[in-house]
Amino acid sequence: MSELPFYLAAFALVIGVLVVFHELGHYLAARWCGVKVLRFSVGFGRVLWQRRFGADGTEWAVSVIPLGGYVKMLDEREGDVAPAEAQRAFNRQTVGRRSLIVAAGPLANFLLAILLYWGIFMYGSDELLPLLGQPPAGTPAAVASIQAGEQVRSIDGEPVQTWNDLRWQVLQKATVEDEAVLEVINARGEIAIRRLALAAAAEDGWEGDALERLGLRFYRPDLPPVIGRVMDGPAQHAGIQLGDRVVAIDGRAIASWHELVMAIRDAGGRQLRLELLRQTENFTVDLVPEVFSEAGKRIGKIGIGVAETGESRRPLRTFVSYGPVESAVKAVRETWDKSVFSLLMLGKMLTGEVSLKNLSGPVTIADYAGQSARLGFDYYVKFMALVSISLGVLNLLPIPVLDGGHLMYHMIEVVRRKPLSERAMAIGQQLGLAILFTLMAFAFFNDLNRLFGG
Fold first, then answer.
1. Residue 452 confidence (pLDDT)
2. Could you tell me which residues come within 8 angstroms of residue 141 by beta carbon, excluding any fewer than 6 positions away?
3. How far apart are alpha carbons 281 and 244 in whole angstroms?
4. pLDDT tens across 359-409, in order?
5. For labelling, which of 40, 68, 119, 302 has a CA lying 20 to 30 Å from the CA of 279?
6. Where are the strands (E) in 288-415, listed by range?
7. Helices 362-375 & 422-453, crossing angle to 10 degrees?
8. CA–CA distance, 319 with 341 (Å, rounded to integer)
C-alpha cells in the first residue's frame, strides 16, 4: 500500500499528458480551420478548476476524473448559434476540414510518441544485451540448438543490439511468419545460424509471455551460491561471512546463486534455515528475510551479494544512444511499427486468434506506469510513448463516439453526398457506447483477474 501513491501519480502523469496532447490536436486544428472553441476540458465529472482565455473566451477546465477529456466547439446541432458566428460553427465546415479536426487528436498522439522516442533515443538508455539463456527442453529454442551465452546479432538480417530489440522483432515476426533466422555469436567468437520456429508464440491466444513459450530466456550466469558481499541486514546479524557457501535452504539443496536468490525472494517475512559450508565446516543459521516491494510484489532480501567469478564479470548491459537524425528516423519507424502491430493484434482479437484476456484497463496501465517509473526515466518515457500510440490507434477505430467513428461518418457523407440523418447517427452513438462499455468491462475484469488471481 505504501507504493500506491507513487503508482497513482505515475499513472496520472501519463494519462494527463496524453489527454492534453490529444485534445490540443483537436483544439489547434479547429482554430486553424476558423472554428470557435467553447470549452477545453481535461477530465470528466466535477470541475476542480476553470478559467476563460483568448478572444473567443474559451473555457479551460480541469475535472476530477482524469480518464479523458474533450474539446467542445460551436455547433448548430447542439444549440442556438448567433447568425454572425454561423460560419464558425463546426457543422458548417467542409467535410475535409471537419475530418482534419477530428483526425488531429489521434495524430497528435502519434506525434507525441515520435517526439518522446526521438528524445529518449538521443538521451540514451542502459539496455540488456540480447544474450540467450539455456532454453527448456522441447521448446522451439531448444530444437533450434540455441546454447546458453549466445548473443543474437541479427534476426532475418535485421541488426539486434538489445534484449528489447530481440523481443520486439520476434513478436513482429511471429504475427506474420512461421520461422525466424537468428545469427548468433558465442563467447569464443564463433558465429552460428539458428532457425527458430515461431508458431508457439501464438498459443493460448497470445496470453502470457510469448518469448517464454518459444524458450527464449535472458542469460543468467551459472554462478555458485558463494557469498561475496555481506551488508547490514539479516545475513550479517546471523553471522554469515564472505566466502560462505549456501548448501541448502530448509533442507532443499541449493546448486546456484539464482536458486539461492529465488528461495530468499519467495520467503519475505518467513523464517528460513540456511545450511552453509565455511572452508571445511558445516553449520546452520536461522534468519527471516526482510520484506521489500518490487514491481508491486512482496519480496525477501537478506543483504548478500555474489562472489565475483569470470562469468559474473561478463557484461550483460550496454548503453545505447543515437544522433539527432538517426534518432528521428528510428522514432518514426518505431511509432509506425508499433501502430501497425497494435492494429494487427486488434484484428486478430476480432477473429479469435488473440484472446480477449490480453485487453488491459486502467489498473494494469497504472501498475505498468509505476513499474516503468521505478525502472528509470528512459523506461517511463518509452512507456508513455507506447500508451500514446495505443490511444491514437484506439481513437481511430471506426466505432461511433470515437474519432474513427466520426471519420467513418464523413466517408459515408462523401459517398452519399449528404450527411447521415440525425437518427442514424444517434443509433450509431448508442451502438458505439455499447461496444465501448463491453470492451471496458472485459478490460476491467482482466485487471481484477491479474490483480487478485496473480
1. 66
2. 132, 135, 194, 196, 214, 215, 216
3. 10
4. 887 777 887 888 888 778 888 999 999 999 999 999 999 988 899 999 999
5. 302
6. 290-294, 297-301, 304-306, 317-320
7. 60
8. 26
pLDDT value for 368: 81
d(CA 446, CA 360): 7
Cα–Cα separations (whole angstroms), residue 359 to 19, 132, 294, 420, 445: 20, 29, 24, 32, 9
Residue pair 348/147 in contact (Cβ under 8 Å)? The answer is: no
Parallel/antiparallel/unpaired status of strands 58-73 and 245-249: unpaired
User: In this predicted structure, what is the pLDDT of residue 285?
Assistant: 94
Residue 179's alpha-carbon distances to 18, 41, 144, 170, 199, in angstroms, are 37, 48, 11, 10, 8
Residues in the chain, pLDDT under 70: 1-3, 293-297, 308-314, 450-454
Q: CA of 368: how far to CAs of 20, 379, 395, in Å?
A: 20, 10, 21
Q: Which of the residues are catalytic? A: 23
List of residues 6+ apart from 423 with CB closer than 8 A: none
C-alpha to C-alpha distance for 85 and 69, rounded to whole angstroms: 25
Task: Supply 354's cell numbers.
Answer: 488473440
Q: What b/e string do you get for 308-318 counting C-beta neighbours within 10 Å, with b at 16 or more?
A: eeeeeeeeeee
Contact between residue 3 and residue 56 where contact means Cβ atoms under 8 Å apart: no
CA–CA distance, 88 with 61 (Å, rounded to integer): 22
Instruction: Please report where in the chains the cell 546463486 appears, as a residue.
Output: 257
Average pLDDT value over all residues in the chain: 89
Contact 69, 18 (CB under 8 A): no
pLDDT on residue 352: 82
Q: Which three cell numbers stand for residue 35?
A: 472554428
Instruction: Give dist(CA 251, CA 350) in Å, integer.
Output: 50
Cα-based distances in Å from 294 to 7, 44, 139, 316, 370: 12, 32, 29, 21, 10
CB 314 within 8 A of CB 92: no
DSSP-based three-state secondary structure for 276: strand
Q: Tell me the pTM.
A: 0.81
Note the pLDDT tens digit of each residue in 140-153.
999 999 999 999 99
Are the beta carbons of 229 and 304 closer than 8 angstroms? yes
- Separation between Cα atoms, residue 441 and residue 315, nearest integer Å: 45
